[in-house]
Design a protein that fits this description.
Elements: H1 19-39, H2 46-53, H3 57-63, H4 67-90, H5 98-110, H6 117-129, H7 137-147, H8 161-180, H9 188-205
């Protein structure tokens, strides 16, 4: 049997482990965010990205095969950071104010899209358009488990699994719209307050 030409074999991507390699990856991701913020997703080409990051195009391709892989890496990093903040908020010590923990969790979610708001929104909207909502699946499942467990919200009985499922995904729908919508949006703090009222009202009704 004849061997396949070596040119048909996919290039193996380097997995950054050493400090220098990790630094290059961070340079590339930071350059991508700056390009998105200044010029939009259409301007994010591998050539422009390599130039912005100050690396050769060959170096960029060692870690990322195309711009979609760069965007996916940024989205994964955003999801990891957001998930950590949310779970930290859920597990925070009980407060006399039943809405305090809820507001802290919602603030952690929505503030992820603060700062360089435009770039982060483009990244997450792009990820969602390519099946990115699946990245939120494990987080949603963990939130369901936590909100249905004993002592999830001080002063409130644990939610049923069905209630926890519905409430978690209702909030997720708002978050997705908040991320993906290009038109005018309500102020973030007002969205946080509205979602807090939704959660409290839902729990009190149950």
């Amino acid at each position: 049997m004849s061997k396949k030409p070596i040119g048909n074999k996919p290039l193996a991507r380097r997995v950054p482990r050493q400090a220098r390699a990790l630094e290059k990856v961070e340079l590339i991701l930071e350059a991508a965010i700056r390009l998105l913020e200044s010029d939009g997703i259409e301007a994010l080409t591998t050539n422009a990205l390599a130039e912005k990051a100050g690396v050769s195009i060959g170096t960029l391709y060692q870690y990322f095969p195309d711009k979609n892989a760069v965007l996916a890496a940024i989205a994964d990093r955003e999801m990891t950071a957001m998930s950590g903040k949310i779970i930290e908020g859920v597990k925070a010590p009980p407060s006399a104010d039943p809405g305090a923990r809820i507001r802290a969790i919602l603030h952690a979610v929505l503030s992820t899209y603060g700062g360089r708001h435009r770039a982060h929104r483009m990244v997450m909207a792009h990820a969602m358009s390519r099946g990115g909502p699946n990245r939120l699946g494990p987080l949603f499942q963990q939130l369901i488990e936590l909100s249905a467990g004993p002592g999830a919200i001080p002063g409130q009985a644990p939610l049923s699994r069905a209630d926890a499922f519905v409430l978690t995904h209702a909030i997720a729908g708002v978050i997705r719209t908040f991320v993906a919508q290009n038109g005018p949006l309500p102020p973030r703090d007002e969205v946080e307050q509205s979602l807090t009222r939704l959660v409290l009202g839902f729990m009190q009704a149950g």
